[in-house]
Write a structure and sequence with these properties.
82% of the residues lie in helices and 3% in strands. The chain has helices at residues 2-32, 37-62, 66-91, 98-118, 126-149, 163-198, 202-227, 231-256, 267-289, 294-313, and strands at residues 94-95, 123-125, 260-262, 291-292. Strands 1-4 form a two-stranded antiparallel ribbon. The two termini are 20 Å apart.
């Protein structure tokens, strides 16, 4: 038991450090190539912080743990929104651009509702996975359209250049990817063992411990953004990461799982409904008044805490 716990914690540590290095390297590559900061935040950073969820779920699906694969993806959305974004809004509420938030938020809510509909027959098939990937294309197109409308003003801090900087940041990128892969394998293997030893269903472990572990990169990014006074950056990263969790992760898991990803009923529906409530608490009030408020952060944290307590009580 002690060895399993140590390996589980080692997997978490590798993923945190690997995700941090991966994002640093990816951000440097984007800035050096001249990609606007908004695109970096909405795509590269979100992709980097979502890599743990993708790797964990794909490995779990390949090993036949469909509950772990889907639970990790949906649990990460709830953790990103209820815990990470809840902390962000509680500490630093602020204004937001209404148009991109409405457009991206509508796509995000539609993705959750689509998964709920797909789960009626208790499985996600490859054709439904393709539909989710088409939603991702719409999301990326929205990013590009917004970038064309926005003016790009370079920040004061310019990226390091030269052979030494390239070696350092490309090394971070590659080592971060390796750390994510190794950490994901340790997390899945030992998470499943812990579930069996403790008598807790895999879906509950995936929705809480594993989801929290894979959401740590988002938490680190959010705390860093808050320290720099960039609340909007943390919100953009969470929205982008959540959308990837709800489209790419389930679709990829279904593909590697033989074209079918099981969706346990009623557990999957309850978990998706919880994610939908958290997203609605975040998005709907901001759509009307173009700002996030501190009460939303408190409400998100309270709802997420109650949800996690309920999961363990009914396990």
């Amino acid at each position: 038991m002690a060895g399993v716990v140590l390996l589980f914690l080692l997997g978490l540590a590798l993923m945190v450090k690997g995700g941090d290095s991966f994002v640093d390297g990816a951000r440097w590559i984007a800035r050096v190539t001249g990609i606007p900061p908004f695109v970096v935040a909405a795509t590269v950073v979100s992709l980097g912080t979502t890599m743990p969820e993708l790797l964990v779920s794909v490995l779990a699906a390949a090993q036949g743990s469909g509950a772990m694969a889907l639970g990790n993806a949906v649990g990460s959305v709830s953790c990103n929104t209820g815990l990470v974004l809840g902390i962000s809004l509680l500490c630093m509420p602020g204004t937001v651009e209404v148009r991109p938030l409405r457009e991206k938020g509508a796509l995000l809510l539609f993705a959750v509702i689509s998964l709920l509909v797909f789960g009626i027959d208790r499985r996600l098939v490859w054709g439904e996975g393709v539909f989710l990937l088409l939603l991702l294309l719409l999301f990326l197109k929205n990013d590009l359209d917004h970038t064309r409308r926005a003016a790009f003003l370079p920040g004061e801090d310019q990226p390091e250049r030269g052979a030494h900087a390239a070696a350092v940041y490309l090394g971070k990128f590659l080592l971060g990817a390796a750390g994510l892969a190794a950490g994901a394998r340790l997390l899945v293997d030992n998470g499943c063992i812990l579930a069996r030893l403790m008598g807790v269903p895999e879906s509950v472990v995936a929705l809480t411990l594993v989801a929290l572990g894979t959401s740590l990169p988002e938490l680190v990014t959010t705390l860093t953004a808050l320290a720099k006074g960039e609340a909007s950056l943390s919100v953009g990263n969470i929205i982008g990461a959540n959308f990837l969790d709800l489209t790419v992760v389930p679709a990829a898991s279904a593909f590697v799982g033989g074209g079918i990803l099981p969706m346990e009923a009623p557990r999957a529906q309850i978990d998706l409904l919880a994610a939908l409530v958290l997203l609605a608490l975040t998005l709907l009030p901001a759509w009307k008044r173009a700002r996030f408020r501190r009460w939303q952060g408190a409400a998100l944290l309270a709802f997420y805490g109650s949800y996690v307590a309920l999961l363990f009580r009914t396990a």
